[in-house]
């Protein structure tokens, strides 16, 4: 899906706002969600994700603004009339009912004929791979199975929009990874417009067509995962998505095709300026550089962009090691190297030289 111009909007939020007394939970959010799009609301705790989702579902009334689904203003429509399926972290299933009855609940409320209910429930059961569990009580299921029942219950009504509020956060790491794949498959098979809430950036990056990064009730950036990772719009997004080194404010110098940063007390870094670095010579900028773009210098290596520091810590992560280096004028800088050799070659406290690949940095105007 295109990051800037989604297909015809399935959901449109127009200056949606929610105040709780004097506190602002969601501040004037406008957003178009494309038909069939998998859109994720991502942000730290308290940024307003659940409040925004609650307003789309109809559990919360906006203080101002409008919510439109398939061209119809539903701002004042009761939740159960919105044709929206919802799954929560806590499952919210009926523990005394069996799997079949849990999934059939929404269809019975809609007074569908019994035979149709059986057909639809069987379809949802097959889609969520729950065959054989129809008669089981929910209390006799594992966490992953319960979440699959919750998903089946949400999709069985053939909703216009599927809302998922941290549905995987109660699951352990392996099950979570497996359920991510299942969610992806479910989305592919149903083509349902999906709005997913998470504070887990890895989950957001792997599942979404587009991600909405929120902070303090406000949208910081809306973009496809790769675009968000490579070209974050501001310091908050840069620091929130993936690991990144935020360098101190520096002076930007430009001479022909070469750009340089003069970092007070640390030195100078330079690069062939990428085309999008259109800063004026002499302005103050901040550079953000991922750990994979900072590497230990080879023994005896000379050249530009090499700065020196002292190893502060190693964090061994299996396939790679994150090494933290204390650098004068820069503070702690992280480098990411394959394997664990660096732990032996550069023990904590040893001097180390790092090569900065400045051309890969995200550069933002310092304000
Ligand atoms: N019923 C309420 N009364 C007062 N303040 C509220 C209420 N619900 C939410 N808030 C506030 O609104 C802001 C947004 O909350 P919200 O639950 O939407 O955040 P979130 O991003 O979903 O967080 P989390 O990831 O922790 O669930 C927070 O500052 C929260 O304290």
From TrEMBL:
Q: Which domain of life is it from?
A: Bacteria
Q: Which residues form a coiled coil?
A: none
What's the EC number here? 7.6.2.11
User: What positions does the domain ABC transporter occupy?
Assistant: 11-241
Mind telling me which SUPFAM superfamilies this protein's record contains? MOP-like (SSF50331), P-loop containing nucleoside triphosphate hydrolases (SSF52540)
Q: Where are the transmembrane segments?
A: none
Which InterPro entries does this one have?
AAA+_ATPase (IPR003593), ABC_SmlMolc_Importer (IPR050093), ABC_transporter-like_ATP-bd (IPR003439), ABC_transporter-like_CS (IPR017871), Mo/tungstate-bd_C_term_dom (IPR008995), P-loop_NTPase (IPR027417), PotA-like (IPR005893), Transp-assoc_OB_typ2 (IPR013611)
* PROSITE patterns reported for this sequence: ABC_TRANSPORTER_1, ABC_TRANSPORTER_2
The UniProt keywords, alphabetically, are: ATP-binding, Cell membrane, Membrane, Nucleotide-binding, Translocase, Transport
**SMART domains in the cross-refs:** AAA
Gene3D superfamilies per the record? Answer: 2.40.50.100, P-loop containing nucleotide triphosphate hydrolases
| Catalysis performed (reactions) | ATP + H2O + polyamine-[polyamine-binding protein]Side 1 = ADP + phosphate + polyamineSide 2 + [polyamine-binding protein]Side 1
Signal peptide feature range:
none
A molecular function annotated in GO for this UniProt entry is: ATP binding
- Record Pfam families: ABC_tran, TOBE_2
Give the multimer and partner information.
The complex is composed of two ATP-binding proteins (PotA), two transmembrane proteins (PotB and PotC) and a solute-binding protein (PotD).
Explain the purpose of this protein.
Part of the ABC transporter complex PotABCD involved in spermidine/putrescine import. Responsible for energy coupling to the transport system.
Family per UniProt? Belongs to the ABC transporter superfamily. Spermidine/putrescine importer (TC 3.A.1.11.1) family.
Q: What is this protein called?
A: Spermidine/putrescine import ATP-binding protein PotA
The species is: Ancylobacter polymorphus
């Amino acid at each position: 899906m295109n990051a800037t111009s989604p297909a015809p909007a399935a959901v449109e939020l127009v200056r949606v706002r929610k105040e709780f007394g004097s506190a602002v939970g969601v501040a004037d959010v406008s957003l178009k969600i494309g038909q069939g799009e998998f859109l994720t609301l991502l942000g730290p705790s308290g940024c307003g994700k659940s409040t925004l989702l609650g307003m789309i579902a109809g559990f919360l009334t906006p203080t101002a603004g409008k919510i439109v689904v398939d061209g119809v203003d539903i701002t004042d429509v009761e939740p159960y009339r919105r044709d929206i399926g919802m799954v929560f972290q806590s499952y919210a299933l009926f523990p005394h009912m069996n799997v079949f009855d849990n999934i059939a609940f929404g269809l019975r409320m809609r007074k569908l004929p019994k035979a149709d209910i059986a057909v639809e429930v069987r379809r949802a059961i097959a889609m969520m791979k729950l065959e054989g569990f129809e008669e089981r009580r929910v209390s006799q299921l594992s966490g992953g199975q319960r979440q699959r029942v919750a998903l089946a219950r949400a999709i069985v009504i053939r909703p216009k929009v599927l809302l998922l509020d941290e549905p995987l956060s109660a699951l352990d790491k392996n099950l979570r990874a497996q359920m991510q794949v299942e969610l992806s498959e479910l989305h592919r098979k149903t083509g349902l417009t999906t709005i997913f809430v998470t504070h887990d950036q890895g989950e957001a990056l792997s599942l979404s067509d587009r991600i909405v990064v929120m902070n303090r009730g406000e949208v910081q950036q809306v973009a496809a995962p790769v675009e968000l990772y490579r070209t974050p719009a501001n310091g908050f997004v840069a620091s929130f998505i993936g690991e990144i080194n935020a360098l101190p404010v520096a002076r930007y110098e430009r001479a022909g095709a070469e750009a340089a940063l003069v970092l007070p007390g640390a030195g100078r870094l330079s690069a062939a300026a990428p085309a999008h670095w259109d800063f004026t010579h002499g302005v103050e900028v901040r550079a953000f550089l991922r750990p994979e773009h900072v590497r230990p210098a080879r023994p005896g290596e000379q050249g530009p962009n090499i700065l020196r520091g002292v190893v502060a810590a190693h964090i061994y992560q299996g396939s790679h090691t994150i090494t933290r280096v204390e650098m004068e004028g820069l503070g702690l800088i992280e480098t990411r190297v394959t394997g664990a050799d660096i732990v032996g070659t550069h023990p904590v406290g040893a001097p180390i030289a790092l090569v900065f690949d400045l051309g890969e940095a995200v550069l933002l105007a310092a304000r």
